[in-house]
Amino acid sequence: MSGLPRLRKILLESMKGLKNISSLGQAPALTEFIHWFPMNMKMEDYIPLLSNPSVKRVNGIREFNESEGEAENV
Mind spelling out the 3-state secondary structure of 9-73? Predict the structure, then answer.
C-alpha cells in the first residue's frame, strides 16, 4: 500500500476471487472500507484492516435474502 499513500476509501462488491486484504493494515490514509457481499472472506480475514489505526469506518452486507427482502449486515 506504500504506492497509494493517499487512498482514503475503498468500496468492493462481491470480488469472488478476493482472499487476502492484509495489505490494508498498512494503508496510511485509509479511513473507510465497505465490502458488499464478500464471497470467500471470513471475519478473521478483516483483522489486519481492523488493526489499522487510521480506519474509522468498516461496513458491509454479508448476505441478502430475496424472499424476505433482508440483508445481513457485517
Answer: EEEEECCCCCCCCHHHHHCCCCCEEEEECCCCCCHHHHHHHHCCCCCCEEEEEEEEECCCCEEEE
